[in-house]
Specification:
Blueprint: E1 65-67, E2 73-75, E3 81-90, E4 94-96, E5 102-103, E6 119-131, E7 136-145, E8 148-158, E9 165-176, E10 185-192, E11 200-202, E12 209-217, E13 235-237
Antiparallel strand pairs: 1-2, 3-12, 4-11, 5-10, 6-9, 6-11, 6-12, 7-8, 7-10, 8-13
Length: 243
């Protein structure tokens, strides 16, 4: 039968160290008893088991919350997330002397937005070329959803200030928020904005052009819309097929 020692307090016989039990012993606190810690207990003394999340901080611990430095569980902080990406490319030179917009054969696959608040970063890279005086290359980006087209960006790019010819990489980009959960696809168009006898080319000399779209979630937007200084023009265009 185990011996029972009934005392109200244990003090060391001398000094300030008090040892209970010996190495290898198990000290048991039975169910219903409370162990009160008024002094200091080093965390290094916990060498086994798992500390319950409720003991680490206030609030609700879950897969969607994190523990902050003030010892409270809060919603997971927002950050930049790439939710989806589509890209298309084309490498056969196209020419035009017309002021009518022409398709650049860069229609992308569709993205179905994760939420109606999704934002998209769209970027077009092409090699443009022109010959003659004062030619301007028009480039525009179009998004299509719910059987309707929306011009999200239109740019007029000066190709020349004088005679001769000029070839160079042209880049236009924009972020836009279509406020829809319908599937969206994108395409690019070009034209000669002076409608002169001098032609403009895209995919010049059969260099590859690309149109890339990125769906971005929970991010602060500090992306420059375009390298050009022209204003961004928004307009609606009647429904039509992209053939």
């Amino acid at each position: 039968m185990a011996s029972i020692l009934k005392v109200d307090k244990l003090d060391p016989q001398s000094g300030t160290d008090l040892e209970i039990g010996s190495s290898g012993d198990t000290i048991t606190i039975p169910s219903g008893a409370t162990f009160t810690q008024s002094g200091t207990m080093n965390a290094s003394a916990i060498t086994a088991g798992t500390v319950a999340t409720a003991r680490l901080g206030s609030g609700t611990a879950s897969s969607s919350t994190v523990l902050y430095g003030d010892q409270t569980y809060k919603a997971e902080p927002g950050g930049g997330k790439l939710l989806a990406h589509v890209s298309s490319s084309y490498a056969t030179q196209q020419s035009s002397t017309s002021s009518t917009w022409a398709d650049m054969n860069l229609a992308t696959a569709a993205i179905t937005p994760a939420t109606s608040g999704s934002k998209f970063f769209v970027i077009l890279n092409t090699v443009g070329e022109a010959g003659g005086s004062g030619v301007r290359l028009g480039l525009r980006l179009i998004a299509r959803w719910s059987d309707s087209d929306s011009v999200i960006l239109s740019r007029s790019i000066a190709m020349l200030s004088g005679g001769g010819s000029l070839t160079g990489v042209k880049t236009v980009s924009i972020t836009h928020a279509p406020s829809t959960t319908a599937a969206i696809l994108w395409k690019a168009e070009f034209m000669n904005q002076l409608s002169s006898a001098t032609s403009v080319q895209v995919h010049a000399n059969n260099y590859t052009s690309t149109l890339s779209v990125f769906e971005l979630g929970r991010i602060k937007w500090q992306i420059q819309n375009n390298r050009c200084n022209n204003e961004i023009k928004f307009q609606r265009r009647s429904s039509g097929n992209w053939n």
